[in-house]
């Protein structure tokens, strides 16, 4: 299998996009007759995929939004749908897993076999043996939480370690160096913290950065590109709710496309400047 980082680079170049649309379906926010109907999760997400797949470098389904509604089968169908309509667009399964090796083997199987994801988000805090099982899956990407977008992310990730390095900086250094076999690792850094994005980019110049937090969380998309993008250092800027719920009406898919298009343009413009 081609490496995730190469598939991502292809999609970014072909679609001229650093935008990732996050698939976080909330039935309570579905339009019209679909409102509150968890059986429509696939239909809702497939409509978003159909409306945006030529504008994105990746899709990122968040597993909890499916599992909470016993809709894992709909997630499987959704990934198959992405494969059909947008075969070159990578799917990042946002699962934030982290466990001992034997359990991690099961999580890896879930992400890469059951859901056929190109990459998965992981917590790095159980150490290198907790991510090794995922590395056995040829070509798949592992994206480690580094400096998350939420306010409480500072509680632990900003702690100073012996030697003067912050915890998130240590994660970035490990992901750029000793842990990064075959360029398989990426890092999550929140759009809400552009200074930390720049710091992570300095430590890990070529590691792909998944950057959530633009749109609903108020992160600065332009500052994100300035801090994180390099010609040889890809960024994947995720927006979920701002795209999915751009309109609560029957025109939700067209409205999602408009927001995705505007966000893509904004990101591309900043890259050129
Ligand atoms: O790993 C993630 O994707 C993630 C990390 C992080 O630091 N912050 C963060 O918001 N996310 C996810 O990114 C998405 C953000 O959604 P919106 O705020 O609606 O764009 C959600 O699926 C979150 O679970």
From TrEMBL:
Gene3D superfamilies from the UniProt entry: Aldolase class I (3.20.20.70)
Annotated catalysed reactions: orotidine 5'-phosphate + H(+) = UMP + CO2
Pathway note: Pyrimidine metabolism; UMP biosynthesis via de novo pathway; UMP from orotate: step 2/2
Keywords: Decarboxylase, Lyase, Pyrimidine biosynthesis
Domain of life of the source: Bacteria
Documented EC number(s): 4.1.1.23
Active site: 96 (proton donor)
All residue ranges annotated as the Orotidine 5'-phosphate decarboxylase domain in the record: 18-256
InterPro entries assigned: Aldolase_TIM, OMPdecase_AS, OMPdecase_type-2, OMPdeCOase_dom, RibuloseP-bd_barrel
HAMAP family: OMPdecase_type2 (MF_01215)
Family per similarity comment: Belongs to the OMP decarboxylase family. Type 2 subfamily.
Protein name from the UniProt record: Orotidine 5'-phosphate decarboxylase
Organism: Rubrivivax gelatinosus (strain NBRC 100245 / IL144)
């Amino acid at each position: 299998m081609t490496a995730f980082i190469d598939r991502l680079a292809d999609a970014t170049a072909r679609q001229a996009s650093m935008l990732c649309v996050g698939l976080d379906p909330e039935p309570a926010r579905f339009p019209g007759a679909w409102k509150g109907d968890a059986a429509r999760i696939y239909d809702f997400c497939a409509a978003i995929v159909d409306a945006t797949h030529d504008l994105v470098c990746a899709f990122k389904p968040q597993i909890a939004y499916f599992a909470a509604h016993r809709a894992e089968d709909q997630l499987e169908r959704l990934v198959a749908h992405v494969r059909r309509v947008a075969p070159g667009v990578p799917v990042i399964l946002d699962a934030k897993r982290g466990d001992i090796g034997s359990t991690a083997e099961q999580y890896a199987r879930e992400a890469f076999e059951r859901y056929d994801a190109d990459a998965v988000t992981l917590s790095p805090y159980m150490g290198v043996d907790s991510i090794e099982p995922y590395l056995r899956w040829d070509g798949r990407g592992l994206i480690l939480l580094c400096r998350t977008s939420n306010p409480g992310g500072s509680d632990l990730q900003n702690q100073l370690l012996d030697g003067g390095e912050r915890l998130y900086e240590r994660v970035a250094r490990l992901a750029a160096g000793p842990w990064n076999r075959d360029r398989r690792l990426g890092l999550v850094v929140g759009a809400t913290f552009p200074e930390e994005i720049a710091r992570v980019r300095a430590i890990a110049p070529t590691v792909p950065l998944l950057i959530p937090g633009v749109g609903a969380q108020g992160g600065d998309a332009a500052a994100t590109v300035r801090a994180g993008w390099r010609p040889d250092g890809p960024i994947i800027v995720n927006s979920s709710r701002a795209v999915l719920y751009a309109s609560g009406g029957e025109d939700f898919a067209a409205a999602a496309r408009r927001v995705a298009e505007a966000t893509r343009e904004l990101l591309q413009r900043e890259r050129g400047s």
